[in-house]
Amino acid sequence: MYHPRLRGSYHEMGVKHATNLIKNEYQLPDLDQSKLEFGKESYKELQHFFPEVIDEIKGLAETLGVSEEHIATLLLSPGAPEKESQGTSFAYKNEDQVLFARSFDFHYNETKFTEASLVKPDGKFAYLAHSKTFIGREDGFNEKGLAITATHVDGKSHKPGVNYYFIVRYILENCSSTDEAIHIIEQAPLSVSSNYLISDKKRSMVVVEAAPEKTMVRKPERNFISCTNHFQSPEMKAFEQSENEWSKSTIRLQETKELLAEKEEDLTIDDIREVLADKSKSLLLDLPEIGFGTCWATITELTSSKILRAEGQPTAKRFKPEIRLDWLLSKEANKRTPKRKKAVQD
Q: What distance in Å separates the CA atoms of residue 75 and residue 83, rounded to the nearest whole number?
């Protein structure tokens, strides 16, 4: 996992990101010609939805020596850029804290270029985010205390539009509350089906179940809420192809609900760390026959902005503090604080 720090204009971030990719000998995946037209049409939708990021795509493409349409097709086509990831996400609150956790499942041999990025675009919110691809974001936590993660759902249809990589990113850079994030998803031209778990430090938490045909907001019945890789709302079942049983989506969901119900009043970060690293549970997914399983996991406490991350297959000891967002915000705060003049002595 790489740990890029990106700040400045969108074009500057694109150039810097591409420079890092070249330095680390990254090879762009082959372009699937059958998806080219879909990518071009989706790129038009992205230009309307998120015009700022187009400059970043241009900066990256120019530096890599490819067309911006090539990059857009890789990022915006169904299954982009290669294969769909899986994952488990949940949020929990009690009187003292708001906890937000996510495990990310993917092909083991394709995780070398996964990223934990510290990002501060000019004029936008700073945030810490994770992804398996450049420019897009899978999950993250921003300076306003908003956390979001997206998990893939095997939908029955797709259409040219914007996928969760750019939905998550747009929300991290522009939204400070759960309600604002919900509005963005409901108004976005969605291309594929996804679950979005969203929470903020004001203790609001929801899952937005989203398909190109319809979106629905699911609120917690108790003090927690969770999602995996299928829809839970009966109204959304008509829009999914399957419940992704190959990745144990329903089993992972059940295990999550059991943990949260058992620890309803006193769930701790240590409890989450242990269950995400428990090899007897499917939350720590391991499918050796296809080389697929959990590749990273994160735990965030929203009120204190504490972030823990385990890179690779999680173990309880592998979770380490991620402090770069705090560092950046402290640095920015110090710049804004006027320095006191030294008193002149007689």
A: 11
* pLDDT at residue 342 in the model: 54
List, in sequence order, every residue forming a beta bridge with 98; answer none if it has no partner.
93
Tell me if 133 sits within 8 A of 339, measured CB to CB.
no
Contacts of 190 (CB under 8 A, 6+ apart): 161, 162, 163, 167, 210, 211, 212, 215
- What are 105's two structure tokens? 């499942």
Beta-ladder partners of 116? 130
Query: DSSP character for 228?
Result: -
Look at residue 232 and give its three-state secondary structure. Answer: coil
The two tokens of residue 41 are: 């049409």
Tokens encoding 219? 């609120």
What is the rounded CA–CA span in Å between residue 317 and residue 221?
A: 33
**Per residue in 107-123, pLDDT tens?**
998 888 899 999 999 99
168: region left, alpha or beta (phi > 0 left; psi from -120 to 50 alpha):
alpha
- pTM for the full model? 0.93
Helix (H, G, I), strand (E, B) or coil at 291: coil
pLDDT tens string 93-107? 998 899 999 999 999
Gap between the terminal Cα atoms of the chain: 58
Residue recorded with tokens 């998990």: 151
pLDDT in tens, 206-251: 999 999 999 999 999 899 999 999 999 999 999 998 777 899 999 9
230 three-state secondary structure: coil
∠73-60-153 over CA atoms, to 5°? 40
DSSP state of 244: -
